[in-house]
Amino acid sequence: MFGTPWADGTASISQCAINPGETFIYRFKVPKAGTYFYHGHYGMQRSAGLYGSLIVDVAKGEKEPFQYDGEFNLLLSDWWHKASEEQEVALSSKPFRWIGEPQTLLINGRGQYNCSLAAKFNKSSDVPTCQFSGNEQCAPQTLHVQPNKTYRLRLASTTALASLNFAIGNHKIKVVEADGNYVQPFVVDEMDIYSGESYSILFKTDQDPSQNYWISLSVRGRLPKTPEARTILNYSPSSPSNLPNSPPPVAPIWNDYNHSKTFSNKILSQIGSPKPPPSFDRRIILLNTQNHIDGYIKWSINNVSLLLPTTPYLGSIKFGLKGAFDHKKPPQTYPIDYNVMMPAPNTNATYGNGIYMLDFNSTVDVILQNANALAVNVSEIHPWHLHGHDFWVLAYGDGKFTKEDEKKFNLKNPPLRNTAVIFPYGWTALRFVANNPGVWAFHCHIEPHLHMGMGVVFAEGVHLIGKVPNDAFSCGLTGKILNHKG
Ligand SMILES: O=C1O[C@H]([C@@H](O)CO)C(O)=C1O
């Protein structure tokens, strides 16, 4: 979002939530071709299915740095049989009730949960084979291909919780784009995709065309209780109703984090991509912990759990309102003697809505520091997503980040992205230039985790923003002012 920070869609941050019956028009520039998606950013509405793909084509006369004969778009998500409002209530209850694992993984909104397409390959389970004729609304969306061609597959994950692994049986995949940025192409058998991420991959239809092949989606990073979602790669002239003869791809073990780290470390920027500034002006270290507040379970960042204000920051800063949020600076780091391998010794976190004011055009380093959650020996994956910017992913590391770890930074060809994971008990170092006037959310893209406070807010150059459409600010204190003015 460049030049229109009020069109970023984050309730309480860039605008007021859109009430039932209201209309809000998002008008914005699309400066960069790539694979994106949009979604509701209020409460847990993304979990409820409020999302869709957003693909930006290359401008007329421009070319992609790779070629392909056809293209498919797969939006990946997860699904619960309980309504998202009920989930919100459970997460905000005392005692805390966790939402559990999703009932289904979805590929373009279609999945299987009480049957398996590949049941005949699974000898140990009594799950029946799915009986789809192909016309049902829930039948998997088959990918029809011609032999000996190259296809582009656009993948984006809007999952509420699940980290995913994606594979096409018997086919290699070449990764060429990540989060709307071209990457140095590399070939893998399968790949991870975390919530908030998008990719383009290329694959060649170089297999026996008398057969069909599996496309599989499985859960990573959490003990999977959710069956794999499948669809079929259908080679012409083979019939789309022929289930593949080969067994489906074997998913990597859910907690094989080294496997995931290997994949993440393969992602490098394409030659000629913008390089990061060689040094930073400000470093913010963000400790990710799970804590209690008054008996509620929360996620907190440097011991502060984000509780959004009723007046959107963008409006309250623009209008110069003092009382709309806490103007104290949130903590830049965490206590030096904190042991990230153990549950928080002081599990009493606080709520907060302060924001990190960044100097316009300064270079900011963020070190995301993972830690133990509330239970011993538990540390989870968190995909962090930054609004309004791409950042360079300088390094992933294990344990507690120290100054020595700066040596590990890749300043030569780090990938530009808008989402990056922290692995259990690890850290991830990001760098970005605060060159986009606005107020920007930076948060764990796992929907229940954001709901439980796992986010921070950055602001820069707000004084440089011109006239903001009033209908973004018709709530809270800005709403009162606008009402007065009539
Ligand atoms: O936020 C979370 O809460 C639960 C668990 O930690 C507490 O029940 C879980 O698995 C999460 O990811």
UniProtKB/TrEMBL annotation:
Q: Which InterPro entries match?
A: Cu-oxidase-like_N (IPR011707), Cu-oxidase_2nd (IPR001117), Cu-oxidase_C (IPR011706), Cu-oxidase_fam (IPR045087), Cu_oxidase_CS (IPR033138), Cu_oxidase_Cu_BS (IPR002355), Cupredoxin (IPR008972), CuRO_3_AAO (IPR034267)
Q: Name one Pfam family in it.
A: Cu-oxidase_2
Do you know which SUPFAM superfamilies this protein is assigned to?
Answer: Cupredoxins (SSF49503)
Q: What class of enzyme is it?
A: oxidoreductase
**Major location category of this protein:** secreted
Cofactor annotation = Cu cation
Tell me which CDD domains the record gives: CuRO_3_AAO (cd13893)
Plastocyanin-like domain sequence ranges: 3-57, 72-237, 346-461
What GO terms are given for molecular function? Answer: copper ion binding; L-ascorbate oxidase activity
Keyword terms: Copper, Disulfide bond, Glycoprotein, Metal-binding, Oxidoreductase, Repeat, Secreted
Highest taxon of the source? Eukaryota
UniProt record, GO biological process: negative regulation of defense response to virus; response to hydrogen peroxide; response to virus
Reaction(s) catalyzed by this protein? 4 L-ascorbate + O2 = 4 monodehydro-L-ascorbate radical + 2 H2O
Cellular compartments per GO CC: extracellular region; plasmodesma
Q: Does the keyword Glycoprotein apply?
A: yes
Residues that span the membrane, as ranges: none
**Subcellular location as annotated:** Secreted
Q: What is its EC number?
A: 1.10.3.3
**Family named by the database record:** Belongs to the multicopper oxidase family.
Whom does it interact with, and what assembly results? Answer: Dimer.
**What is the protein named?**
L-ascorbate oxidase
